[in-house]
Input
Amino acid sequence: MSSSVKPSAGRFAPSPTGPLHLGSLIAALGSYLVARKSGRRWLLRVDDLDRPRVVEGAAAGILRLLEELGFEWDGTPLWQSERDDRYAEILQQLKNKGLVYPCSCTRREILGSAPHLGEEGPVYPGTCRQGPAGQRQELAWRLQVDQHPISFCDGLFGDHQQNLQQEVGDFVLFRSDGLFAYQLATVVDDLDSGVDQVVRGADLLSSTARQIYLYRCLDSEPPEYLHLPLVLGLDGKKISKRHGELGVVRSDNGSEMMRFALNFLNQPLPAELNGSPATQMLDWALEFFDESLLERAQKSLPELQENL
Ligand SMILES: [Zn+2]
Output
């Protein structure tokens, strides 16, 4: 499973759980500019793995908008919902290596048995390592982690370290509801597509150590990571559906949103391009994007409420 046979690539992987949001536009823009500036391909992937959360028509709407805004991706987009066979194959490889095990624990049982809470909920204490401990028929599959801390250097957030055993526990690759987990799918897809540079929102910083661990279990090299700050609303929370229409990218505000996204990434768009079509701003950015300016990118933009 070497990624070296494919030309290097970055990617954008939106989840079609609603319309394109400013936060996603920033991730698209950041990954696009960093990839293109480094001579990489830029791939598009639809993360529609979590079927119950997928909104019908959302993926088509996101792709159409990206095209309108001037993004040009390489090849055809990959749809995670069409990749179950491949994920199953990789899960089988991990089973053959004895690295995963079935778990019968319910959410409530885990809450009751977890010694402490990690960054993303209760730390799974390994209850089912010797075999499913409960009665539930629907089994999840967990990847056994070890005690060695995972270290990586993020392109923007710098050095990070996480001890998976202490802070996460053995984590789920296949869910008890029959769906493959995000962590497995994203690593398999990035590997298969030759993605060696991941630029995405900082809400995924806490998933990175798990993904690096998974790469190692698959005898593969992890990509470089660069996490972008999140756009926050006036309430200090990440801009999302709970903020209603605020931050939703549409055809009629594409130019304004693109200007805002470039501003957020700390790229000094010339004043004469203010109000010009998004495609023109994107052309300017492809030429003049300066990755070193990302370091001083804003962490939150309180004026968001009034301006959009
Ligand atoms: Zn269990």
Notes: The longest helix spans residues 22-37. Residues 103-105, 127-128, 133 surround zinc ion (CB under 6 Å). The chain has a mean pLDDT of 90. The chain is about 30% helix and 15% strand.
